Amino acid sequence: MISTGLLLLVLAYLLGSIPTAVWVSRRFYGFDIREAGSGNAGATNTFRVLGKKAGIPVLLVDALKGWVAVMLPVWVFIEPSSPVLFENFRVLCGAAAVTGHILPIFAGFRGGKGVATLLGVSIGMHPLAALCCIGLFLLVLLLTHYVSLGSILSSLFYALFILVIQHASHDATIIFAISIPLLVILTHTKNIRRLISGNESRTYLLRNQNLRSRR
C-alpha cells in the first residue's frame, strides 16, 4: 500500500512535469516559449505568443495532467479502506502534479504557474466548484481581458465555494482549498504589480495573436 502510494505520487509529479508549452513551441515553432512573452511555460503565455492554435491544446493537456493525477488513486484503489485517507491522498496527488508543472524535471525545473493544472485537479476533485470558477474566469477575462485577474478571482471563489457552500470537513480538502488562492497569488505577484500600475498584458479571446510581434 505504502509503496503503491509513493509510486502514484511520483507518477503524478512526472505527469505534471510534462512541459506541454515547451514541447509544442520547440516542435512546431522552432523556439522555446520561455524565451518569449512573460517567459513562463504555461497556457497563458502560449496564447499570447502563439495564439489559439497552440494555446488551446496546451491548456487542455495541462489541465488533463491535473485531472489524471487525482484520478490515479480512483483507478488503482477501487475500494479504499478509509474514505478520509483516500480523499487526502488524492489531494496529495494533485499537489504533486501542480508541483511538477511549476518545477518540471523534464524542462530544467522552469515551468508555468500551475493554474491550468490546478483547474484539472479541481475538475477531478470538485467538478461543480470548478465549473463555477471557469464561468467566473471567462466572465472576468471577457470584461477586463486580464488572464491574471481572472485566475486570482477564480481561485479565491474556489476556496469560498469549497469552504462555505460545500462545507468541506476533511482537513486535506480544507488545506487544499486555502492553498489554491495562496499559490495563485504567490505565482502572480509580478502580475499583481502590473495590474496595480496599469501595465499588465491583455489577452483577447476573439483576436488572433501576432507571433512575430511577441517574439
How many separate domains make up the residues? Answer: 1
Mass-distribution shape = globular
The structural class is mainly alpha
Mean pLDDT metric: 91
Helix-strand sequence: HHHHHHHHHHH
Strand portion: under 5%
* First and last CA, distance: 49 Å
Descriptive account of the structure:
The protein is mainly α and 215 residues long. The protein has one domain. It is 73% helix and 0% strand. It has eleven helices and no strands. The chain has helices at 2-16, 20-29, 43-50, 52-76, 83-102, 115-125, 127-144, 147-165, 171-187, 189-197, 211-214. Helix 2 (20-29) packs antiparallel against helix 4 (52-76). The protein is globular and about 50 Å long. The chain starts with a helix and ends with a helix.
Descriptive tags:
single chain, 215 residues, mainly alpha, 11 helices, globular
Compile the SSE list and pairings.
Blueprint: H1 2-16, H2 20-29, H3 43-50, H4 52-76, H5 83-102, H6 115-125, H7 127-144, H8 147-165, H9 171-187, H10 189-197, H11 211-214
Helix pairs in contact: 1-4, 1-5, 2-4, 3-4, 4-5, 4-6, 5-6, 5-9, 6-7, 7-8, 8-9
